[in-house]
Fold this sequence. Notes:
The chain is an alpha/beta fold. The chain has helices spanning 16-28, 42-47, 65-75, 95-103, 116-127, 131-137, 227-241, and strands at residues 8-12, 32-36, 53-57, 84-89, 106-111, 140-150, 153-162, 166-170, 180-187, 192-204, 217-224.
Amino acid sequence: MSADEKKRVAVLLASSRARQLVPELFQQMGLQVEILTAPAELGPAWQSAQHDLLVVDIDMLAADWRGMLEQLRQALPRHPQNPALLVLTGRSLSAEARRALEELGAGAALSTRAPWMEILFAVNRLLFPKMRELRSYSRVFGGFPVQYLYQDRWHQAEVYNISQQGAFIKCDEPAPAGSRLEVRFVLPGIDAELKVAAQVNWVNREQPGPGTLTPSGMGVMFLFLSQADSHSLDRYMEESLGANDS
C-alpha cells in the first residue's frame, strides 16, 4: 500500500507507555499515525478532514462524567466528513454512557485494559467497514507455525501477522532483504495448507524490549497466491476479524 493509500489515525493517549507502543503497533498494521499531546488538539484533528480515525483516551479530559461529555461535544461537532471515533477509558461505562458516546459519534468504546487484539479488531472494523476492503488491507496477528525454504534448507518459524499481501515471520535468523523464499503453513481453523513464493521486503534483527513490540524476524511479500490459496486466506481473515459483510 502506498503512502497515499494508508489510513491516517490520530491518537490522544493518557499513558506514556501507550504513547510509545500504540504508534508502533498501528504502523505495523500499515497505518499512518499522528500523536496528539493535549485535549486542545482534538478539535483541529477532528475537523481537519486529514484523518480516517481518531482514537481518544477520554480519561485525559474532565474528571467528572458530565464535564467530559461536554468537552467532547465542544471538541467534536458532528459533520459528514468527520473521521471514525474510537473511545478508550479506564472507567466502567454504563449502557447510558455508551449511548451518550454513540450520539457523539463514537463507533466503539473500549476499556484501556482491553487486550490489544480487541483494540486492533475495533480499529480494523472502524477503518474498513466493508469486508472486502477489510480483508484486503488489514493484518491478522497470527501465532501459528510456518516453514520457509532458504538456501536449500527448511527453517521453522512463526507467523506473527498476516494479510492478503504478505506476512511478518517471527524468527531468530531472518533471511536478508531481497531474498526469495518458499513459504508453507496451515491456516488455523481452515485446515488448508498454503505453499507460497515470497520475497523478503524488510528485516528486524533486534529482539523486543522496552518500548518496542516488534520481534526479530522478516516481513515478506507474497509473490503469487493461487485462487484456492487466496480463497482460504480470505476465509481465515474473515473468521479472525470477526466481521461480516453487513
